[in-house]
Amino acid sequence: MEAIAAGLFELEGDGSIVLIGGFSAISGRHHFPLGPVCPFTGADDVEPVRLPQDGHLWAWTAVTHPPPGYDGPVPYGFGVVELDGIGLRLVTRLTESDPARLHEGQRMTLVTDEVADGVATWAFAPLPE
Which of 41, 4, 11, 7 lies closest to 26 in space, CA to CA? Predict the structure, then answer.
């Protein structure tokens, strides 16, 4: 499987996925995607870091009509997940497309999501409660 874009994540040998973000010691904050400067302060001390794979659901909805250029299945879940331990909130795909099956604070974990034939991106899936 091939990543949708270089540098966003690493596909591990066991099939798991790790997002690659940045950390600035000057701001003390993480960001995603990795960029050469801190988006909060403009500091150029950014170091690449592997981001936590688990978090909790902060906001969610379902996409019921495909956006321009997207040929994948609909509906699909879309939301915001706050990563454990660092407070970074990511706008992300969700594997659950039914908003009624999701709730605030729900535990989520990072997974690969095939969006086209052989092309992978990231998404978050609900953890069993």
Answer: 41
Q: What is the DSSP string of 44-106?
A: S--EEEEPPSEEEEEEEEEE-SPPTT--S-SSEEEEEEEETTT--EEEEEES---GGG--TT-
Which among 69, 55, 62, 66 has a CA at the least distance from the CA of 125? Answer: 55
Residue 70 amino acid letter: Y
Rounded distance between C-alpha atoms, residue 44 and residue 46, angstroms: 6
Per-residue pLDDT tens digits for 40-70: 999 999 999 999 999 999 999 999 999 998 8
Question: Which pTM was predicted?
Answer: 0.91
